[in-house]
Amino acid sequence: MSKFTIERVRTGIPGLDELIEGGFPRGDTILVAGKAGTGKSILAVQFLYKGATEYNEPGVLVTLEEPPHLIKRNMMRFGMDLERLEREGLLAIVDLSPSKERTPVMVGEYPSFDLSGLEAIILSHIRRIKAKRVVIDTLSIMAYKFRSRDILREEFFKLCASITGEGCTLLLTSEIPAQDTGLGVFDIETFLASGVIVLYNEKISETSRSRSIEILKLRGSKHSSRIHSMRITDEGIRVWPGEIPGH
Amino acid sequence: MAENTGTADTDNADGAIEILFFKSDSCPFCPRAEEVIREVIGEFDPGVFRLVVINVSEKPEVAEEYGVFALPTVVVGGMSVTGVPEPEMLVKIILGSRLSRKRRTTR
Ligand SMILES: Nc1ncnc2c1ncn2[C@@H]1O[C@H](COP(=O)(O)OP(=O)(O)OP(=O)(O)O)[C@@H](O)[C@H]1O
Ligand SMILES: [Mg+2]
Questions:
Q1: A137 C-beta neighbours (distance < 10 Å), count
Q2: Distance from the alpha carbon of residue A202 to the mean position of ligand 1, in angstroms
Q3: Which domains does chain A have, with CATH numbers?
Q4: From A120, A244, B30, B56, which residue has the greatest number of CB atoms within 10 Å?
């Protein structure tokens, strides 16, 4: 492959890759934004599952919100057995969810810290299983945990650079607050990522909603600029590239 | 060291209160935080505290177990402070942890 062609990392999510010239550019940081319940976590974990099972790319899932046993249970509904992947060394789940027993209650925060601990934890798993894909779900929770936004912004940039510097493709999720029009709680989410995907679950009538997906930007890619139908099926997320909702 | 890090909330054989200090090789604020902690501990009788220093660069698994990833962080009795702490704040959480210990044992 010439050094001028962008190598693609197939997401393996049915219908998505054909909207983005075959996949995410390898080594890029991709943001998946959406309101609560739009399918961000499912999409992110499915990206890791497909990587591990179909493309021989081990993955690290850093969960800052949902505890692992719930993620496993949810994904099992789609026939995705995460525990098996863990046993086979194809998946590492880094549990940084707040519900952990040992996790102390933070009673004080001074604006003189960094995220080098998070970096060390994630890199140790990347190196252990030779991961090629990393998911951080979700960035937004940091905004509730820490007050020092300026530090977080700077530290996120460093963290993303050091993860992608290991040769991994990084997918971040960010929750859009219910009444918000931006892409997340930090206002920097877009700058962090070279690709942005937005998930919707809009009310289309008094009694129904319709899921859809939009590729807002993707570095070096001639991606679709339309909003496409998406559904959560028994096999996980599926995108209908030809289908435009409401048409 | 790992076996010493699991008892932050309980009495140890020697009765010392455990203070966990999480740092890393690259963290610019960590040396100053460690100084502050050592100064505060120095104001108490020796043997009251046991300081356990966890270098996350070397032992990321311990930080993961405690869910501590912003550095420096000091943990005493289930409470934590992140960033370079003010000495008064440290004293406060240390005394808080002693009080809650007392309460538990007199009940
Ligand atoms: N087995 C299933 N079949 C169909 N839809 C499902 C199934 N499991 C979950 N869902 C849908 O997926 C949604 C949750 O998806 P997911 O957890 O990925 O959302 P999210 O965007 O991460 O939400 P949050 O912001 O709360 O973390 C549920 O609200 C539900 O509508
Ligand atoms: Mg989620």
A1: 25
A2: 14
A3: 8-98+107-240 (3.40.50.300)
A4: B56
Searching chain B, which residue's CA lies closest to the CA of residue A111? B83
Q: Which DSSP symbol is given to A184?
A: S
ipTM over 0.85: yes
Question: How far is the C-alpha of A232 from the C-alpha of A235, rounded, in Å?
Answer: 8
Q: Write out chain B residues lying below 8 Å of A113, CB-based.
A: 27, 29, 70-73, 82-83
Which one of B56, B60, B82 has the shortest CB-CB distance to A106? Answer: B82
Name every chain B residue with its beta carbon within 8 A of the beta carbon of A121. 56, 60, 63-64, 69
Tally the residues of chain B: 107
> Residue A177 gets which letter from DSSP?
P
| d(C-alpha A11, C-alpha A170), whole Å | 12
Instruction: Name the CATH topology of B2-106.
Output: Glutaredoxin (3.40.30)
pTM of the model: 0.92
pLDDT, tens digit only, all 247 positions of chain A: 567 889 999 999 999 999 999 999 999 999 999 999 999 999 999 999 999 999 999 999 999 999 999 999 999 999 999 999 999 999 999 999 998 989 999 999 999 999 999 999 999 999 999 999 999 999 999 988 999 989 998 999 999 999 999 999 999 999 988 887 777 776 666 678 889 999 999 988 999 999 999 999 998 888 888 999 999 999 999 999 887 776 5
